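Why do we care about 3D structure at all? Because function follows from shape, and shape follows, mostly, from sequence. That is the central idea of this module. The next example makes it concrete: a single protein chain, its amino acid sequence, and then its structure expressed as tokens.
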Amino acid sequence: MKFQFRPSEERGGADHGWLKTFHTFSFASYYDRSFENFGSLRVINEDRVEPKQGFPTHPHREAEIFSYIVSGQLAHRDSMGNVETMSRGDIQMTSGGTGIAHSEYNPSSSTDVHFLQIWAFPFKRGLKPRYFTRHFTDEEKKDQLRGIVAPLGTEGVSEEREGKGLTPIHAPLHFFASLLSPSKSVTHTILPSLNGKSTKLVYIQLIQTSGYNTGAANKSKNAGPLISVVGGGATAELGEGDGVFIRGGQVGEEIVIENVGEKVGELVVFEMDDE
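And the structure:
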């Protein structure tokens, strides 16, 4: 495996007043040709939206779009007639397909909403737009990697709008989340590929739960979560907002993730086919 560490302060992003955001990949006015996508991953925005503010109705097509709620509430409304208010633990998947329009809004009068907005390229164009919601408790993610999203057809994936189990996505992408306690570790075993290739891509990011901070993360063990990532002889340490891109992972290889800090770390893991 080859590791590429990306510190939080090198992400793109902006403070728009009503919206404070970090961009893992090129987005809006932020462009870096080295970070346009990673396999089927196209967008990971870590957004914080102020009370009574939000994104007005706007269109999407040919994209799988999902939101992972960290804190606060996010109201969703779309052209398919879906109306939803999501809270911590909720995940909402919109399969844009041939085209949808939606809005996202913070309905609270006092509390920001903090969430990850994630886009992926679909494995087929011209799909019928669809919508799914799921809920995953903190207990389900405590000191384990909980599967959240998986390709349609994967065992455990339900096609119900509000079903139990994994959230379906029309892309060769798996998404996991964990709330990792100090001194605890989890192991991710690289899954078989959908396209028959022997190598996979993995991206791991530690969510910046302490607040919006554009400077270098304080990585002392007493300051916050500090995550060690080890795989294939390579290592990386992640503070809040940091990420590591992993290339060349072989199916069946293991990646060990350990919290070597003093606070619980909320982390996400993406695994996808190496296109």
